[in-house]
TrEMBL record:
This is Uncharacterized protein. GO terms for molecular function: actin binding. Residues 18-140 form the PTB domain. It comes from the Eukaryota. It comes from Octopus bimaculoides. Residues 234-252 have a biased composition (Basic and acidic residues).
Length: 278
């Protein structure tokens, strides 16, 4: 994969940022001016259905903002810049805050009858979120990308083909002859450290998956219990007065709603990921 932390295209017309997509949801027109409302919804998702992140490339071009999947570079979304409203950067003084260094932007397509805004939230990672927002605002205003990214241009492809690699036995003999024992020991030590770090990362990811699966199962159990209680209440004609009975039925009806189909897909993917990590 290319390293896309912050890159400008060779022609200087586009700038790329590596981000983590956290969530996309529908908001009101008023909420597009309040990024904290989006963060509140994000927090609710984290505590209920969980958040499924995706590593993406945010490409800010002259007329469009394009979101690509990192690795495959397949295009996920393409938004005309005039459709992007109120990009915000959310930064917190406490670096350990979970919802820190976020890019929040809303997309409104005024050509559609149902032009309900969609809010997108990204984690900016190693690049300050405000830098990404500034580049979006520059592009919307027709200004070129900021010059500080010029020293990180993507190099052009080499003009000459790569040299033929040496044969395996020659390379192996040269390596052994030129490498003292202490270097081999150091390499093995570094490999062990890297292996331990990968194991620790996989363990943390597995724990997150288990937590989300447990929350999802708890949601299903609660919905099933509420449904049974609702059915029992409907069969029981006596008891509480009509108004109190209706309020209880309304609460149970909301609580008995099953998760959305996309939530089932997400949790199935986490099951698959968990099995791969085990």
């Amino acid at each position: 994969d290319r390293n896309y932390d912050a890159r400008m295209s060779p022609m200087g017309q586009s700038v790329f940022f590596e981000v983590d997509h956290l969530a996309t949801f529908t908001v009101t027109h008023e909420e597009t001016h309040n990024p904290e409302a989006g963060v509140a919804k994000l927090s609710t998702m984290a505590n209920t259905s969980g958040i499924w992140t995706m590593k993406c490339i945010l490409a800010i071009e002259r007329n469009h903002l394009i979101i690509k999947e990192k690795g495959t570079e397949s295009m996920l979304d393409c938004f005309p810049l005039p459709n992007i409203y109120n990009p915000f950067a959310i930064t917190k003084s406490e670096k350990c805050d979970v919802y820190n260094n976020l890019v929040v932007l809303s997309v409104i397509d005024n050509t559609k009858r149902d032009n309900q805004p969609q809010m997108h939230i990204f984690l900016a990672g190693s690049i300050p979120a405000q830098d990404i927002v500034d580049e979006i605002l520059n592009a919307k205003a027709g200004r070129p990308p900021t010059s500080r990214f010029n020293n990180q241009l993507i190099p052009p492809p080499p003009s000459q083909p790569a040299p033929e690699p040496p044969s395996f036995m020659t390379a192996k003999s040269s390596f052994i002859a030129a490498t003292p024992d202490r270097t081999l020991g150091s390499s093995l030590s570094g490999a062990n450290i890297l292996k331990n770090e990968n194991s620790e990362r996989d363990g943390q990811l597995l724990n997150h998956c288990f937590d989300d699966i447990e929350k999802f199962v708890a949601r299903l159990q609660k919905a099933a219990e509420s449904y049974k209680e609702l059915e029992r209440l409907k069969k029981d004609k006596g008891g509480k007065e009509k108004r109190g009975r209706q309020e209880m039925e309304d609460k149970l009806t909301m609580s008995a709603l099953p998760p959305k189909p996309q939530d089932f897909v997400d949790i199935f993917q986490k099951f698959k990921l968990s099995f791969n990590l085990l």
